[in-house]
Structures are given as C-alpha cells and as structure tokens.
Amino acid sequence: MKKYFFALILITLSVFANAQIQLSDSAKISLMTTSPWSGAVYAVYGHTAIFVKDDFTGINAVFNYGYFDKSKPNFLYHYIRGETDYILGVVPLDAFLQEYREKGVEVVEQELNLSQQEKQNLWEALYINSLPENRGYRYNNFYDNCVTRPRDLIEKYTEGTILYPEDGKTQTFRDLIHECVSSYPWMKFGIDLIIGNGADKPISLREKMFIPAYLMNALDKTTVVKNDSVFYPILSSKSIVVEKVTSEKGIREWGIQSPLFIAFVLFLFTILVSVIQYTKWNSSKLLKIYDTILFAAYGVGGTIIFLLMFFSEHPATNPNWNFAWMNIFALIFAVLFWVKSLKNVVIIYHFINFVLLTLFLLFWWMIPQQLPLATIPLSMSLWLRSGMSAFMFRKRKISNKHHFSSKSMKAGWGQ
To answer: Which residues does 193 contact at the CB level (< 8 Å), separation at least 6?
Structure first.
C-alpha cells in the first residue's frame, strides 16, 4: 500500500497547464487496484490509485496517494509517532503499470460509471489535490490512507446516494490485517504487539475499505440511487490490465522458528536457569546477567509500546494490554539490578511483577484484546524469573535469620 517516494516521478504533466481543461465525452476515470506484493513490508496489502484518460485532450494520468519520502530527517522517529506525511503523486499509466509488471503483480481496472459533469468535477478535484501546496496529507493506517482517499473522492463527486452491498461478515481491523500478513508470522506478531484493543472492535464494510481488495470487491456490487427512483451500478466495466505472475521471491522469515516456537524455547531455557539457581542456591553474576538481558529486551519492546500508546498519532494503539507484560519498567529495573543499595527496591519490583503477571496469565482469556498466543510463554519467562528472585530472597532471609538465631542460642549456652 505504501510506496517509495521518487522526486523525479512526481511530475506535473503538460496537460495540467490549464486547470480549467474540459474533458471530452470519451474521457474515462477508473479505479486501479493492485494485488499484494510479497517483496516489501509496505506492499503486502495491495494498492489503489485513480486513472484519468482522455484521448481528445491527451490526458493520461494516474493519481497515486501512496508516496512518502524516506530520506526526510528523523524519518523513523516520525514514523513511530504516526507523523508520516504522504503525498499525491502523478505518473503516466505506462510508468504506473510497468512497476507492477516488473513485480509480477496483478492490476485491475474498474471504470467508474460517471456522468460528464461528475467526471469533470472529479478531474478538477484531483488536479487541485496534485498541486505542490495541496498534495501532502497526514497518513493514517485505518482512516486516511492511499485507499480511503480515492474512495472519499468517488463518494464526494458522485451525484446521488452510493449504496454499498450488505456485509454480513463480522470482522475487525485486526482480522483484516491478519488476512494480509497470514504468511508472515513475525510480521503478524509484531503488529499484534503494537496495536491495542481499538483494533478488535467490529467494523462496517466502509471501514474495511482501508484494504484495497475490500474497496475493489465492494464496488463490484455497489449501486447509485438518484431521486429515490433511478438505480444504476457505480461501475461501467472491469478488466485485468496486468496479469499476476507467480514468484517465489518475497519477504524472508524464519521457517519453523515462529514466534510461538521461540517463545517456548525461551521459557524452557528460563526454567533451566531457575532450576540451577534453586538447586545450587546460585546468586552469581551469570544469573544477574541473564536477568538483565531478559528484562532489558522486554523493556525495549515495552518502551516502543509506551511511545505508541502515549506519544503517537497511530490509531488503535491505546489502550494496549501487551503493556501488562512488556513494559518500560522492565528496562529501568534491568539497570537497577546492578545497584546494591537498591536491592530491596528490586525485590519489591519482582514481587509486584510476579503478582501482576500471575493475574495477567490467569485472566488472559478474558482480556478485551486479541493477544498473540506467544505472549503466554513469553510472559511466563518474566513471571518465573521475578517469582524465583522473590522466593530465593525470602528463603535466604529466613536461612540467615535461622543461622543467626542458632549462633545466639549457642553463645547463650556457652558453646
């Protein structure tokens, strides 16, 4: 859905010299929908653009709301905060299609059934949007992206009421994302970590149109009604302009090493570490190093979730129940593990963390957010280390108390 920004591609065609150009009767405006491409993370959802063609005036332009500039300073920081600005780019049809031919991606054209005046109004709106002072917009994954923008323009400049087909399937934003990334378990896992329970509420068909395929399929059965009596389909034709070519190339992810598999391996290793600590009463630096690495790793993930929850414009990131087990406090205390004067504070943290994670695991099935299954063994690793740390501290304290008590008794007996 997202595309790289190429400054040289963002051209203003010569036909744009006159904003008031009148389209001929033979002009057509179409929705261009591309199928998902597995070669990049941003492309697994597909893409949507608007194509305007008029042989009489020479207009041949694809309006594409999917460009962004990765070269801007602090791009990653702004992307995490949801401050990514996209722009409307304009390219000739051949350039647009060539990109997807090279990728082996299918492109479907749906010609809109518009009156001459509707075409003219839509064309003028696209032209105005493409001007340098107007072409930028703040991208929003669910509500304002390169798919919803064309849909909104079609709705705005179609005279009459647009009637989308009935949609009896109850789905959420998360469900639709899962459909697109089902072949990429690590990508799916990462997305499930950063989006909160706002993505788990049932959505309407119109809201589902942030995914290109849902807009394309809905338009196939969409009608327009005028004056409460005239009904007609919103499309006049549909055709495949670029055939899909099967390719084995795609995003590479670890094979059997899925998030759930790795989570269980980590938990089993944590059990081993804890057993060694218990049987040997070991409080060496190796255990402290392991705990530091474990809690720091969780804390880094928790910091990202924290930033997305409270300092991001991304939708559906707050509240996020993953923060119950992956939070910023783990990173803070990973540092404090090495401060001897705060030993008692660290133990209090372990006890509180153990209690909270116990409640989290007991009520995991009741949490109003769809959490990845891997969160169970992952959170159990922290739960076990905090529980074991608190237990060993108490056991050592009782042992020391017993030791000193025995020495006092023996001294009293003159031994």
So the answer is: 301, 305, 322, 326, 372
The per-residue pLDDT for 75 is 66
pLDDT of residue 10: 42
Alpha helix (H) residue ranges in 239-373: 259-280, 285-310, 328-336, 343-362
Residue type, 87: I
Neighbours of 5 (CB within 10 A): 17
Q: Specify whether the backbone of 58 is left (phi greater than 0), alpha (psi in -120 to 50) or beta.
A: left
**Structural contact between residues 330 and 299, judged by C-beta atoms closer than 8 angstroms:** yes
Read off the amino acid at residue 393.
F
| Mean pLDDT per 10-residue segment, the chain (415 residues) | 41 49 94 91 92 95 87 70 88 95 95 97 95 92 95 96 92 96 92 95 96 97 91 96 76 69 96 89 79 97 94 92 96 94 94 97 96 96 95 76 50 48
The residue behind tokens 């780019």 is 89
The pLDDT assigned to 279 comes to 85
**Whole-angstrom distance, CA of residue 56 vs CA of residue 218:** 31
Token duo for residue 284: 């060496």
Identify the pLDDT of residue 401.
Answer: 60
Q: 160's torsion region: left (phi>0), alpha (psi -120 to 50) or beta?
A: left
CA distances from 252 to 42, 70, 178, 364 (A): 14, 22, 17, 31
What does the pLDDT read at residue 7?
Answer: 38
**How far is 272 from 266, CA to CA, in rounded Å?**
10
- Distance between CA atoms of residues 384 and 77, nearest Å: 34
365 Cβ partners below 8 Å, 6+ apart? none
Q: DSSP letter at 337?
A: T
Q: Are 196 and 320 in contact (CB under 8 A)?
A: yes
Query: Residue 183: what pLDDT?
Result: 87
Give CA angle at 156 (153, 157), nearest 5°.
85
Q: Where do the structural domains in the chain lie, given as residue ranges?
A: 3-167+204-240, 259-406
pTM of the model: 0.86
